[in-house]
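// run 5 | inverse folding | seed 20
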């Protein structure tokens, strides 16, 4: 039977966190600023209170996030299951990408903001109104006292900056800005912006060049998409996580209602990113492929060759756009 989608009380989550002697903090695959920043902020806070913390992410962080304090301590192979396992910014348990599977045993906590969250843990704390899991984490950590540690503040600020697109996406609320204001004294925002957004490796630019060369339109030019093959990454000398910014170029094209980036992570394994500028609910499209996310930003992982997967995803997207029109 599916678990009821019900949140636990913040005070109970905090009690569990604060009382843990040992904890495993888990970020999602292909980690971003929100999952890493929120995880590390929690790690710094719990550690200061005496918890033995291990942080796990299946994949490496992108180069522009390597400045995050504590990032170097993130392990990429799952350790033995501790009594408490905390999933950060993961809509479902599979998002953690444990390879091999984490042996059961620990109490699980799920802290997240995705509408597609399936309340998979023993204790769930999901707020879909939060622009970033970093906002939720801020609220939880504040219950343990004022945030005065610069590393924790930088991690939380990064989580919120990245998931709000530098406070520009529609998910940005007064709460996002109030939290940012509270953290601002501890953060060099100009330097942070430089580091995250204004420095690119040549490989990244070469990859962008190839991506733009692959740009294709469909559905009366309302959908733009880019398939990037293993060969594209190799030819550019780029890693998979260097294509994160490509989707923003596609989405920004005038008249484009939905953008799709298909990244061949390994032969037969395609990571799909989708963005919507309006009517199309890309979370629903991603859901058809066991993925998820938000209404205007979602993703999924598909098995198959790049060409057929591209066709399949575009077909699903067009169906969703057409059905949206009828409603
Ligand atoms: P991305 O395109 O990777 O930037 O992801 C956009 C949004 O969709 C983020 O909120 C992700 O957490 C979510 N997302 C991406 N891939 C997946 C997936 N395979 N399963 C569930 N959610 C995903
Ligand atoms: Mn994320
Ligand atoms: Mn997030």
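// decoded
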């Amino acid at each position: 039977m599916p678990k009821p989608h019900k949140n636990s009380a913040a005070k109970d989550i905090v009690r569990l966190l604060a009382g843990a002697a040992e904890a495993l903090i888990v970020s999602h695959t292909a980690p971003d600023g929100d999952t890493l920043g929120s995880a590390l902020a929690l790690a710094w806070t719990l550690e200061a209170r005496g918890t033995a913390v291990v942080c796990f992410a299946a994949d490496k962080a992108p180069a522009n996030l390597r400045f995050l304090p504590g990032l170097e301590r993130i392990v990429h192979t799952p350790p033995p299951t501790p009594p408490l396992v905390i999933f950060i910014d993961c809509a479902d348990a599979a998002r953690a990408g444990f390879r091999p599977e984490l042996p059961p045993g620990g109490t699980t906590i799920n802290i997240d903001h995705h509408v597609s969250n399936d309340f998979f843990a023993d204790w769930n704390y999901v707020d879909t109104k939060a622009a970033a899991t970093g906002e939720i984490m801020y609220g939880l950590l504040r219950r343990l006292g004022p945030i005065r540690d610069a590393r924790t503040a930088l991690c939380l600020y990064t989580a919120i900056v990245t998931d709000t697109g530098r406070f520009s996406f529609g998910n940005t609320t007064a709460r996002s800005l109030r939290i940012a204001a509270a953290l601002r004294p501890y953060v060099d925002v100009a330097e942070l912006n430089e580091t995250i957004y204004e420095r690119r490796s040549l490989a990244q630019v070469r990859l962008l060049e190839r991506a733009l060369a692959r740009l294709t339109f469909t559905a009366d030019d309302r959908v733009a998409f880019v398939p990037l093959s293993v060969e594209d990454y190799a030819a550019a000398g780029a890693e998979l996580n260097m294509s994160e910014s490509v989707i923003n170029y596609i989405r920004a094209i005038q008249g484009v209602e939905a953008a799709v980036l298909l990244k061949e992570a390994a032969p037969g394994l395609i990571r799909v990113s989708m963005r919507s500028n309006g009517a199309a609910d890309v979370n629903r499209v991603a859901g058809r492929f066991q993925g998820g996310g938000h209404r205007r930003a979602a993703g999924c992982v598909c098995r198959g060759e790049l060409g057929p997967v591209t066709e399949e995803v575009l077909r699903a997207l067009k169906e969703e756009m057409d059905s949206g029109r009828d409603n």
